[in-house]
Amino acid sequence: MSPISGHHRKRDDVHPLEGAFGSFARVAVLAIAAYFAYDIRLFAVREYGRIIHEFDPWFNFRATQYLADNGWKKFSTWFDYMSWYPLGRPVGTTIYPGMQVTAVSIYNTLKALGSNYAMSLNDVCVFFPAWFGAVATMLVAFLTAECSGSANSAVIAALVMSVVPAHTMRSVAGGYDNESLAVTAMCLTFFVWCRSLRNERSWWIGSLAGLAYVYMVAAWGGYTFVLNMVGLHAATLVLLGQYSTSLHRAYSLFWIIGTLGAIQFPVVGLAPVKSLEQLGPAFVFLGMQVLAFGERLVKSRGAGGAEAWRIRVNVYAGAAVAACVAIAALAPTGYFGPLSVRVKGLFKMHTRTGNPLVDSVAEHQPGTPDAYWRYLHYSYYVAPLGFVVSSAHYVKTRDASALFLPLYAVTAYYFANRMVRLIIFLGPIASSLTGVGAGYLLDDLIDNARWAQRYLVVRDGAEGSDDSEDDSNDAKAAATNGKEKPAPFSPNLAKKAGKKAAKSKSGSQGSVADDFKAKMIEPLVKTYNSKNGRATRSLVCVVLLLWGCSHARPFWDYSHMMARGMSQPSVMFKGTLQDGRTVMVKDYVEAYHWLRDNTPEDSRVMAWWDYGYQIAGMANRTSIADGNTWNHEHIANLARALTAPEEKAHRVIRHLADYVLVWAGGGADDLAKSPHLFRIGKSIGHDTGTVDMYEIQSKFGVDQYGRPTPMMANSLLYKLVSFQGKVSEERFREVYTSKFRKVRIYEVVNVSQKSRQWLADPENRMCDAPGSWYCPGQYPPALAKFTGIIKPAYRMPAFAKQQIEERARREAEKKEAAAQKAAEKKAAEELRKATDGQAAHEDL
């Protein structure tokens, strides 16, 4: 039975809403939810047109264009020299290509269907997040149905997921970013994994969960959360005594297929079996094999009781000793990779990560109650009810998938509390738990209404007989041996379990737990199912559902308001002039187009790393750094160059760039970011260390009246950005100022052509092997004397160093041979002249 069509348990007295009409209604509401999810993400398209937003999406689009134009082979070995100049970036080994491959596949499919369906690649990338936002909404419904057993909960979860800001924040049309696909891939992986645990015969679906996880790996670096979430779920089931052959097989298939697929991506490599943040699931896999071996050994020997446990303990102890020996042998070799800086920040105070580049990003700040309210709104308060219901559902049913939602909620909340960007993980689970909470109220109300109909109309009393019938139905469900899921939230399951326990204990002394159950639990269950209990429950359900309905419209309006606000692209926005007129401010787009149309194609543009993707994507010009932030040292060099005094800065910049672009005009301009630039610049070099922000602002900042400190006033950055400052035209000449003065572009005067030519020579790149495509550039030799600003940013491979030394030796030998040849030629010429002179003298 479909998880959406109704409960997994069949009843003889099916309510009309659970019949064919009910199934059709649910499917219709799901379709409406998918439409809502698509429609709410189109604000940007309606107001600004089909344009890529923000910063990272421009790199993603540029990479997608490269893949569409050149194919996978060239894409996988693409070393981009238009970014991170002069080092370059090996895109083929640093990108998660799932989104690019998916977008190009959609583009080619639409093109193959004919001109009526064909779309430009730009349009495919613009609508991509909205499409997959709708798909993620459907998958959340399936996940909720699978884990809760309630079709009504699934439908409500889909309606919440379709508009909740925690999801739309990364999936508005034009926001062509990895998360727009990753959330969909994550929900798919979670759903298929839970589906593989439905019964003893569904373990093979674990292989599909592994494939879904591979797709997640291809989509986003947050795949580690998905891997650890599945591993945590499997490990918790084992610890709670729910190990089974089907669980072992499902998880083994998931981990083996998922790991084999993940290591195929160069950006991942062997991290799944070496990185500390991914070894937990690997140990769960190994532990599963040990458990399976122990059980197989016990079964083969026909052991039982104490003998069986002796065999198990020996197996477990032997495995533990072997694991300790392996770890002790591998650890000194450096086999286990360290935790990344961002991951470390999830387990200690954020301000102590030690990396100011990470600290400078607003999304890396800790989550706050205000952030939860902003991105979850009313679901932030309803989800706890769903958490309690889901936990109770697991306790009552012991259904493996029922445990997943509570675990997911606790884990996602912890990480979102450490880094506000990870609130994106809370979107699906908050929607699911909201659906579970509201669905429980609706299901219970319908169940009580059905009971009242039987009790008042059909049987005219006989409450006890109703309970017996419910018990009979529950017994039928249990008799299926796990082939069908039990009905959600059924209190009669606990009642039945208590009766069975009492029967098994008849004639013997019961345990304390049995006494507690008989004296406390069963009377509560009986009261819960009594006429008065049902009436009270119905009243509470009606009140809470009315409260929810009264807040549905405010939640809807708030979500649309947030979606409209999050749909504003960073490259353009609407502003209000002093005369009250509303205008479209396109300064950033126009500035990048000016670069594209008015500068040579090989121009190099220096700007803070935020704008690197847009410079390469919109202006099609070489940038110094961008949002990939793979090289801290290089960004620190850029920061020092911009914050240095004008004269010193020009001595360095003339060797690296032809133009300098800055954001001005207030707001989030470069002056507002200047303390972070100064802090990042100070973090590398002889004075390494994280500088306190208050100390920075006292030295490099502006006071409350807007007056700069002496160091700030003397810096190149202040003179380029502020209209109160001015640079010397002998060093920097302003060539463009945007209409609303949001962007200023300067041409670098007296650019070093010697350094430019040296950097353009492929012989000066440092390949990691002969004939390799992986050939990073290096700083020109002229920068070696500016040690106060430029620090080493790339460790030269041993092969490259040897190659350069060999080249230098050959050049020296060539020069020496040329000098010797010139000396010999000169000597021969002198001898010839002397011989000719002597011959002339003899002739005379």
From TrEMBL:
Annotated TM spans: 20-38, 124-145, 181-198, 252-272, 315-336, 378-395, 422-442
Against Pfam families, the record matches this protein to:
STT3 (PF02516), STT3-PglB_core (PF21436)
Which PANTHER family is this protein grouped with? DOLICHYL-DIPHOSPHOOLIGOSACCHARIDE--PROTEIN GLYCOSYLTRANSFERASE SUBUNIT, DOLICHYL-DIPHOSPHOOLIGOSACCHARIDE--PROTEIN GLYCOSYLTRANSFERASE SUBUNIT STT3B
Task: Tell me its EC number(s), please.
Answer: 2.4.99.18
Comp. bias regions, Acidic residues? 463-472
> What is the protein name given in its UniProt record?
dolichyl-diphosphooligosaccharide--protein glycotransferase
Task: Describe the location of the STT3/PglB/AglB core domain by residue ranges.
Answer: 602-660
**Functional pathway:** Protein modification; protein glycosylation
Intracellular or extracellular location(s): Endomembrane system
Q: What is its main location?
A: membrane
In which organism is this protein found? Micromonas commoda (strain RCC299 / NOUM17 / CCMP2709)
Domain Oligosaccharyl transferase STT3 N-terminal span(s) in chain numbering: 28-425
| One GO cellular component term noted in the UniProt record for this chain | membrane
Q: Which InterPro entries does the entry mention?
A: Oligo_trans_STT3, STT3-PglB_core, STT3_N
